[in-house]
Amino acid sequence: MIGRLNHVAIAVPDLDAAIAQYSGALGADVGAPQDEPDHGVTVVFINLPNTKIELLYPLGDASPIAGFLEKNPAGGIHHICYEVEDITAARERLVASGARVLGDGTPKIGAHGKPVLFLHPKDFNGCLIELEEV
Ligand code: CO
């Protein structure tokens, strides 16, 4: 059911430093920061030949990234995103298998303008999984 790895998201404590590191030392193609107020994050996309990296930095008072950075002050991998063709069919299959979908289970429009869902990390080996319909 899952397809390509769409992106790996990394929460960063210092966005400017992370941008400088990826564009400088790592020599990557780094996009401009985008504020996503609905998601409580500022996002920077880094285009790699086979996937993307998504740098996440807290935006606003109730950012879902703030608690993660408190527990992981140096930053860390926050989630990975797999592509699916039909997000509703994917949800039904996962719920039937006993997996927990975060929130009310309704797909939301993610940072790429496409429907996304998140799956509970405790059901997936400690890894927060995002599914994106492509
Ligand atoms: Co993501």
Describe the structure.
By secondary structure, the chain is of the alpha+beta class. It is 20% helix and 35% strand. It has three helices and nine strands; from the N terminus they run βαββββαβαβββ. Strands 1, 2, 3, 4, 5, 6, 7, 8 and 9 form a nine-stranded mixed β-sheet that branches. A hairpin with a 4-residue loop joins strand 3 (34-36) and strand 4 (41-47). The model has no long low-confidence stretch (mean pLDDT 95). Residues 7, 9, 54, 79, 81, 130 line the site of cobalt (II) ion (CO).
The strand count comes to: 9
Overall pLDDT: 95
- Percent strand: 35-45%
Radius of gyration: 15 Å
- Structural class, from secondary structure content? alpha+beta
Helical content (DSSP H or I, runs of 4+): 10-25%
| Poorly predicted residue ranges | none
Order of helices and strands: EHEEEEHEHEEE
What is the first-to-last residue Cα distance? 13 Å
The hetero compounds bound to this protein are: cobalt (II) ion
Largest sheet: 9 strands, mixed
Number of helices: 3
The outline comes out as globular
Quick summary of this structure?
The chain has 134 residues and is α+β, with helices and mostly antiparallel strands.
Index terms:
134 residues, alpha+beta, nine-stranded mixed β-sheet, 3 helices, 9 strands, 20% helix, globular, binds cobalt (II) ion
List the helices and strands and how they pair.
Layout: E1 5-11, H1 15-23, E2 29-30, E3 34-36, E4 41-47, E5 52-58, H2 64-71, E6 76-84, H3 87-96, E7 108-109, E8 115-119, E9 129-133
Parallel strand pairs: 1-5, 6-9
Antiparallel strand pairs: 1-6, 2-4, 3-4, 4-5, 7-8, 8-9
Bound molecules: cobalt (II) ion (CO).
Cobalt (II) ion binds at residues 7, 9, 54, 79, 81, 130.
